[in-house]
């Protein structure tokens, strides 16, 4: 706990989905000086905003969580933006962090950086063995460049930057906007909207055959902070739960837990994305003692309960 007592910490994306849990856990750990450069006040795609954020926050440690993200549809519609914004934010934050001589930079990558046909479970050593899945390659490659930069800066400048590869996250406070949400919040919203509107079916993209791994957001926040405290090496590290579930089984689970009684229609004209995703999580446990604590079904239940509460609250306040 004493690690954070006198540290000044900048958390980009600290007001977002994952960031809010990281900030909460930092406070529990005794960190009293947390700086969150909000999107409204700091456009981190622009160098002058990055410089101003470091000047205002004066961090000892920077945890870079801010990202432009979305599901397959959002990635297909915005490949240029997803590449440019994510690349420029990360590259400039690391560079100014080096210039200001901070103690440590924690860069957050993505499972989308892995090659399309990586052997399961994905091992960190396989990261460069092919091109990422096409629908989210620009996003994945932009994030992967932060690993290249981190390793290059460690080699040339002795800059302590680490790189973590989280799997798909889910949990309370997730993004439920149909235009940009990932698969779990999208399915939860579809089911509840169908129940509310008395619709007899929901339409789901793809064939249902691909598999995915999911990490509960609170577990991800814990893994990030454990790495910040204990890990100081150039090699990337996976953050995951170490399991995979097919999209079909995921849909069946969410249909059951939400109480939707209608039909699921698969739109096979839409892309499946990467065929399989499942991480090897042994390095995270070995290097900094991280293991996911939340069972998948329990995590989805908590997320649905939160969504129901939020939806009811919004309806009551209209």
Please give a quick description of this structure:
This protein is an alpha/beta fold and 318 residues long.
Strand-residue proportion: 5-15%
CATH class membership: Alpha Beta
Give the termini distance in whole angstroms.
Answer: 43 Å
Shape: globular
Structure description:
This protein is α/β, with parallel strands linked by helices. Helix content is 44%, strand content 14%. The protein has ten helices and twelve strands. Strands 2-1-3-4-5-10 form a six-stranded parallel β-sheet, with helices on both faces. Helix 2 (47-57) packs across helix 4 (79-99) and helix 6 (183-196) packs parallel to helix 8. The longest helix is centred in the C-terminal third of the chain and has 22 residues, at 296-317. It starts with 7 loop residues before the first strand and ends with a helix.
Keywords:
single chain; 318 residues; alpha/beta; Rossmann fold; 6-stranded parallel sheet; two-stranded parallel ribbon; 10 helices; 12 strands; globular
Tell me the layout of helices and strands.
Blueprint: E1 8-12, H1 17-28, E2 33-35, H2 47-57, E3 61-64, H3 72-77, H4 79-99, E4 104-108, H5 137-157, E5 161-166, E6 168-170, H6 183-196, E7 201-205, E8 211-212, E9 214-216, H7 217-230, E10 237-239, E11 245-246, H8 247-258, E12 263-267, H9 282-288, H10 296-317
Helix pairs in contact: 1-7, 2-4, 4-5, 6-8, 8-10
């Amino acid at each position: 706990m004493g690690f954070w007592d006198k540290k000044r910490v900048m958390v980009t994306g600290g007001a977002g989905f994952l960031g809010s849990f990281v900030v909460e856990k930092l406070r529990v750990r005794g960190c009293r000086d947390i700086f969150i450069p909000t999107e409204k006040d700091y456009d981190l795609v622009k160098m002058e905003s990055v410089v101003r954020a470091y000047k205002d926050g004066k961090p000892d440690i920077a945890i870079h969580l801010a990202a432009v993200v979305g599901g397959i549809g959002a990635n297909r519609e915005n490949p240029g933006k997803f590449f440019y914004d994510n690349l420029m934010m990360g590259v400039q934050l690391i560079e100014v962090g080096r210039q200001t001589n901070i103690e440590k930079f924690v860069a957050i990558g993505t499972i989308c950086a892995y090659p399309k046909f990586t052997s399961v479970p994905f091992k960190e050593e396989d990261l460069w063995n092919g091109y990422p899945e096409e629908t989210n390659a620009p996003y994945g490659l932009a994030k992967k460049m932060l690993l290249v930069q981190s390793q290059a800066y460690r080699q040339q400048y002795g800059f302590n930057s680490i790189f973590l590869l989280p799997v798909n996250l889910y949990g309370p406070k997730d993004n439920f906007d149909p235009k940009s949400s990932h698969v779990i919040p999208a399915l939860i919203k579809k089911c509840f909207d169908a129940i509310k509107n008395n619709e007899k079916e929901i339409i789901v993209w793809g064939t249902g055959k691909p598999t995915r791994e999911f990490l509960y957001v609170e577990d991800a926040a814990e893994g990030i902070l454990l790495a910040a405290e204990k890990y100081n090496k150039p090699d990337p590290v996976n953050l995951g739960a170490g399991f995979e579930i097919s999209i079909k089984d995921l849909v069946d689970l969410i249909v059951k837990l939400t109480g939707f009684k209608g039909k699921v229609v698969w739109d096979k004209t839409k892309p499946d994305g990467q065929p399989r995703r499942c991480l090897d999580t042994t390095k995270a446990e070995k290097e900094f003692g991280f293991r996911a604590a939340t069972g998948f079904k329990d995590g989805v239940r908590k997320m649905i309960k939160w969504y129901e509460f939020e939806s009811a609250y919004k309806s009551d306040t209209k």
